[in-house]
Specification:
Layout lengths: L13 E8 L9 H4 L7 H5 L14 E7 L7 E5 L5 H12 L6 E3 L5 H4 L6 H4 L8 E5 L1 H10 L18 E5 L15 E13 L44 E3 L2 E3 L1 H7 L23 E12 L3 E4 L7 H9 L4 H7 L14 E5 L12 H11 L3 E5 L7 H12 L5 H4 L2 H9 L9 E3 L5 E2 L3 H8 L4 H15 L3 H5 L1 H68 L9 H40 L12 H17 L9 H31 L13 H28 L12 H18 L11 H14 L1 H13 L8 H24 L3 H20 L8 H5 L13 H4 L2 H24 L23 H17 L5 H34 L20 H5 L1 H26 L2 H12 L1 H8 L22 H36 L8 H5 L3 H20 L2 H25 L8 H21 L10 H10 L5 H12 L2 H11 L6 H9 L5
Parallel strand pairs: 3-4, 4-5, 5-6, 6-8, 11-12, 12-13, 13-14
Antiparallel strand pairs: 1-2, 1-15, 2-3, 7-10, 8-9, 10-11
Helix pairs in contact: 11-13, 18-19, 18-20, 19-20, 20-21, 20-22, 22-25, 23-25, 23-26, 26-29, 29-30, 29-31, 30-31, 30-33, 31-33, 31-36, 33-36, 33-38, 34-35, 36-38, 36-39, 38-40, 39-41, 40-41, 41-44, 42-43
Amino acid sequence: MTTAATSVGASAPTIEFIFHGTGTSSSLPNIACITSDPITCETCGSTLGPAGQKNKRRNTGGILRVLGDGQSPNRVIVIDVGKTFLSAAYDLFPRYGLRRIDAVILTHPHADAMNGLDDLRGWTLGKSIQAHIDIYVSAFTFKEVQRSFPYLVAKEFATGGGDVPEFRWHIIKENEPFRIMGVDFDITPIVVHHGRLFMTTEGDRHTPNDTPIPSGTASPAKAQFNSGTPKSSSPGSQRNSIEISAQGDPVSVDAVNMAALQLSPTHKPITRLTLPNQAPTAKPKPYLCFGFIFGDFMVYMSDVSHIPNDTWETIQSNSPGFGNQKNSGSSSGVANQTGRYRVLVVDCLRLEPHTSHFGIQGAFDAAKRVNAHRTYMVGFGHRIPHDDWNSIGEYLEGRDMNEKQLERPNVLGAMGILPQGGEPVWIRPAYDGLRLLGNKEEIKTLLSPPDVSLSETRALEYLDSNFVSWESIEQLSRLDAEVERTRVEAQDLEKRLGESQQLTYSFISTTNHQTKSLIDYAQELSLKRHLMVDEISALHDELVPANQEGATLLSELEELQKRLKELEGAKSYLQVLERALELSERGVQAIKQPATDRFSTTILDPFKDLSDFVSRANELLTDSSGSEIPMIARFLGNLRSSTWKDIKGVFTNRLAEASEKLGWPLPINLPASSVSDVEAFQQTFVDLLSLQAEGEAIQARSEVSDNKNERDGLYSLEALVLPIALRFKFHFDSTRPTSRLDKPEWYFTHILNISHEHRGFIEHFIQPLIDKSPFHDINAQNEFTRLLFPILARKIRKSVPQLLAQPSLLAHTIYQSLLFDAAVRESGFTLVNTWECRATKQHKAKEWPGVADVVLSHKSWFDEWMEAERHFTEHQYNEIIISPDAFAFSNDGNEDFQQADIRPTNSARRIKALLEQVTERYQPLPHYNQRARFLITVQVPILEAYYGRISSSLDAFETLSSSFVRAVPGALAGQVGAGVDARKLTSGHEGLQRLLKAYASAFAIKSAMQEWGDSIFFLELWTEINEKSALRAKVDAHPSLPHTTPASTAEEIHGTLFDELISQYVSIVTRAEDMIIRHVCSEVEVELKGYFAKQWESGHDNDDNLVAIPATLVSPLTTLTTHLSLLVKTLPSSATASLYRRIASSIASHILQRSVFHFGRGRMIPSRGVVFAREAHLWVEASQLAMPNRRVEGPWQRLLDGARLVSIPEGADFEAAKDTIWRASNEQCAEFAEAIGVRSLDRKEMQDALRARSDW
């Protein structure tokens, strides 16, 4: 079946159409018929034999194959996939070489059209044939598929293994052509009636609210999917590879759910038939079904009981000859003979009409009106066999009927229904597997002469298969019947061949005639084209001016037309503006009339007219795309706002006049005021409240949201604040002495006093008036105080730029603003029940940021202040460090010094005070990130610098004490210059004092940080830092601050903010302690060198020597006593005791090692042992002298124990000691040691001590 070309020179596609089903919904044969005994149904019974195979009919549907040209593949379009489609595919796809399905088009959502959708999984599972199949349906059909088979739309509804077909859905609409990819002709959906349905209630679920209802023109409804449409729960959820599109443009399912599919402007929306105030009644409605027009060659209507008029118009307008008919003025509803559809497929269930299907009369009328070359009937029931339908078609074609045909009751019944005579129509029954050929090669094959040898071969095969034995040969009646059937079929084919040849000759003649007419028409058009070119050329010459550089007349006309349109638009705009200005003037004048001293809602009627006018204008001037608002719309909005401000101003002035009579803004003495003045004030105050309430109502009706600023509040209180603002400006924004940049506390105190002075008047007189108004939830005192803040905010914004060059004044102003905020909060002020919370509709109280936030929220101003604070603090630190008494003890010579504390140096005390002063300055800051920045930028660098200073001093001390004399930055006493004895700086009393100052400085700052870390302020700051990721990042990046722990991962936040710095200072305190001990011990050990060198020189000792102090011990003992005395004087008892124990233990061990254990082995005579014991007690006595009233023996115990052992009398006592220490048991040895007072030496050390005796 080759289609006619749609235009001259265009090549038509090569098409073939295959009927995959031609039966009704229940299909044929009927199970009840073929299982009855006996079988009485002729049609169904014939399907059991070979002669009745054409009576086997599946659910109606078709396959349209567009044959490619070798460069492009074939395209396969399936129309309807009913219950029997899969069996049809098993039969037809292998027979005709079909495999892929490019598109499925559904006519309606009945089982015989859509229940085979699930069987399409065989094509898409695992992409066995293709990845997906495009499905084209109406919105109503899509909803029914979604309701019946939800898993076909969204995989989340699939059960079992989840193996479902992959579809891509497309929504198509009535009379809106669409194309399938790879197909170069349009497919136009048309609406036909397929029976009817009843609606008894408005919510009848069997009649979806988008079921198409004819209203003038039949059009499918907008695809408004119901809430049951599955929505994707996440971007990665399975959507069954579904895309839904409106006629080919893919969109997501969610997009369809949210926005549905938009109706074309030419389509009417679907409306219900039941009126709002009418009880629903049962009314029949047509059930609508789609038919299709394929290009201009085929009309397909498989399920139809009625064709609406607008559908007939669509069929006619798409016919090949429609253009010629219009040109020829034909008004007939039948397509002319020169341009006809090639094929019509039409529904015909039975002879009689049916509620949902055509009978023979309907099918005949449709065929006659469409006037296609060929009409095929489908949708047959089982009452009439195929041969009878074929005879009825011959009758309609005008052929003579033979006696056998006239004997058939069905044929006679059709003849009784159909009209006699008239123009013949070619109409035949289709059957399953019928293929309408469009391939030229196949047509040539059919036209070729028969192959005799092939026919003989097939005849022999037939005989061999049916007559395999002598018994079967005896049944020659079967062979005779088969021969007779074949003969009759051959005669019929010959007859049809003659008819086809006659029609072919007729078609060729008609085509030649039409081609000649088209050639003549083309020549005529060519002539007209040349004439038009000449006319256009002449017009061009007339329009082009003589001066080629000038503008053409046409361009001038276009420019004038453009300017005319602009002027017309400007005129319209001016008319709008004129009307708006007129309404604005009327609105203000209505308020200013003398008769409007009292407020009433009627006086705002002119303003309401203006508001409504502006709202309507804005609707016309703006669109919903969110583009920029036109200038005129902004002007109208501003005009409405300014008009309202003028109205408000009139009432504000009245209240100002009334309040002035009471003495406002000075404190009001109500008892001393006249009753009339008080009543006038009350009335004007209430009028302004009423005006504000009505204004809110007008805004709500007009959906207006004017811009608000920080002064928005109750109109009445705003009016009272206005004279206060004027007085403030007079005093503090002028050249008066009260306007001074260095005295911000003056204007802060002024505003604070005003709030306090008027509190009684506001709470006891104003608050009751507000309580009776619609704004009864407003707290008058809080609202009045809030409205005073913008006065200060303006002053601060004006002053700060002038203060940036004066950091000290800037810091002072900010500090005063923080004090003001604290005072306001202490007075009980909050934003609860103020206009700000009411306007923003906040249920939770908003925290007031404070007036200081004007500066603190301004990044550059805050940075300037921070930098000023940093420079100031660094300057103060440097002044402290370079002070001559920086490292002197803070209360040297002060008898009131508490021995429980380590006396700090002046620098440590001053730095602590400096850092506490910094804390005091930034403690009132409202935001934790500002506090953290102050800590990191200002305080931590000072602590780091002081730590570095002390550490460098200790480094310098160690360097100088090692005789490497060099200038070391950070030395406590300054740089070491020429002519300075380096050893003097690090030795003796002076050296120890330097170490003690370093120790005390570090200890003082460490103790201060421990105290700060446990304070509430720094604990709260540390907690907030751990809770906020931004602050954690800043703190974690700083090496001198501890690592944070996110509050979400820790049950409890441990540590303090200064733990890391404390650990650094602890390390330097420990280092200073070690250096103090090493310094004292090393100096004593140096002095002991002479003692060790001469202790063996004396050959004997007398009694006098036993009581005298050896000269070699005087210097060591004096050095020890001096250093211990300095420790006792400088440090508290606990610190002194700790250092003393370590010093004494070290010296005792040193003497014991040098005199007894190693160097004295076998050299100490008994008398020298006694002397050594006396000398050992001298160390204890010297320590007791430096540290009176303290127990000092403990650290010297090892030395005393060694002295006791070497001083044992010679002879029997010494021998007994040796015998016990070397030979006795451990218990006996311990008893002996306890007896002679040895407590700290072990057995080996006691043996080493005895070996020092010369008599050992």
